[in-house]
Write a structure and sequence with these properties.
single chain, 345 residues, alpha+beta, Endonuclease III, domain 1, Nucleoside Triphosphate Pyrophosphohydrolase, 2 domains, two-stranded antiparallel ribbon, 9 strands, 12% strand, DNA-binding, 4Fe-4S, 8-oxo-7,8-dihydroguanine DNA N-glycosylase activity, HhH_motif
Length: 345
DNA sequence: AATCCGGGGGC
DNA sequence: GCCCCAGGATT
């Protein structure tokens, strides 16, 4: 039996029932695919249901305020996905008459839709014979066929895409694509796959050559940048505080946060007092009290954010401020949301 | 080709 | 602590 038929056989026996597998509605498929980029099914699932409840159709999403989209996306990370999601919904409504395009090329022109996602939507919704190559597929192909090219090098990416196309089942592309990804997620898992009962163990090169633990090969370890964040949590006598929206490039674009002072190293109360005076803030007579004397280390893929929250009880009236009871309505990073949750006023 | 972009879970 | 997760965009 061929590679693809073994995958299909395994899939029909072992597949999980997932909501986006019960439909061919491109809106739902697209939504699930964007959410599942670099995200586990279990993490994305509740977001998928909340989005469909809030935005049943692509028109609803297109008409929404970006802030509402970001708020629903809060906690899922990679927030450019949410901004691109919103932009693409508008694009589909305005340029494609509310219908998702059917071709790989047109799908790939949508914001946030790359090679993998375009192939996924085209094959799942419209039976277009395009192979998907995600992290699961890289692992299955690298092990079964013994490919030692780095999966994140241009030559490796090209090679795996061509290999995926050669071994796919074009006649059953929907189930085959779902199947090889599911096989990678469940059977050919990253760590300690149970090769003894794998239906593909007979022809598996990695198993034969004892390379299961070393394939696939991936280079370029990410190096982490350490940053020091100081958030100024202003509170006036009415319990109003100040929020600002992050603009420009970098992390958390368009999300909200407290006024931020970034420093080269950890700041102590004297340094903070000096800073506030030097900035000529009107609350120079007020005190900034560290809420957490030991910095919270919030870890992102490329950054470790050593963060102190400073409570600044000001005698000013924050006319432009936000009532504390309303801060939970803004889209904020998890770092901020966790703090808001723990602070008792 | 290299880097950036989140947060969570498993071991 | 390290790796991975239904990747994509930018430089």
């Amino acid at each position: 039996m061929s590679f693809s038929h073994k995958i299909l056989d395994w899939y029909h026996t072992h597949k999980r029932e997932l909501p986006w597998r019960e439909t061919r509605d491109p809106y739902k498929i697209w939504l699930s695919e964007i959410m599942l980029q670099q995200t586990r099914v279990a993490q994305g699932m509740p977001y998928y249901h909340r989005f469909l409840e809030a935005f049943p159709m692509v028109h609803d999403l297109a008409e929404a305020q970006e802030e509402k989209v970001l708020k629903l996306w809060q906690g899922l990370g990679y927030y450019s996905r949410a901004r691109n999601l919103h932009a693409t919904a508008k694009m589909v409504v305005e340029q494609f008459g509310g219908k998702f395009p059917h071709t790989y090329k047109e799908l790939k022109s949508l914001k946030g839709v790359g090679d993998y996602t375009a192939s996924a939507i085209a094959s799942f919704c419209f039976d277009v014979p395009e192979p998907v190559v995600d992290g699961n597929v890289y692992r299955v192909l690298a092990r079964y066929f013994g490919v030692d090219l780095p999966i994140n090098s241009p030559s490796g990416i090209k090679y795996f895409k061509e290999l995926a196309r050669e071994v796919m089942d074009a006649e059953q592309i929907r189930d085959y694509n779902q199947g090889i990804m599911e096989f990678g997620a469940i059977q050919c898992a990253p760590k300690k796959p149970y090769c003894l009962l794998c239906p593909l163990n007979e022809g598996c090169v990695a198993l034969k050559e004892n390379k299961v633990d070393s394939l696939p090969i991936k280079n370029n370890k990410t190096k982490v940048r350490v940053r020091h964040f100081n958030y100024l949590v202003y509170l006036d006598i009415h319990n109003n505080t100040l929020l600002e929206q992050r603009k420009g490039k970098g992390i958390w674009q368009n999300l909200y946060q407290f006024p931020l002072v970034e420093s080269e190293k950890e700041m102590n109360p004297d340094e903070m007092e000096h800073y506030l005076k030097s900035e000529g803030n009107p609350q120079l007579l007020d005190m900034a009290i560290p809420y957490n004397p030991d910095p919270i280390i919030h870890k992102l893929s490329h950054q470790h954010l050593h963060t102190k929250f400073w409570i600044v009880k000001t005698s000013d009236i924050l006319e432009e401020g936000t009532a504390w009871e309303e801060v939970t309505q803004f889209p904020v990073p998890v770092l901020i949301a966790d703090f808001i949750r723990t602070l008792k006023i």
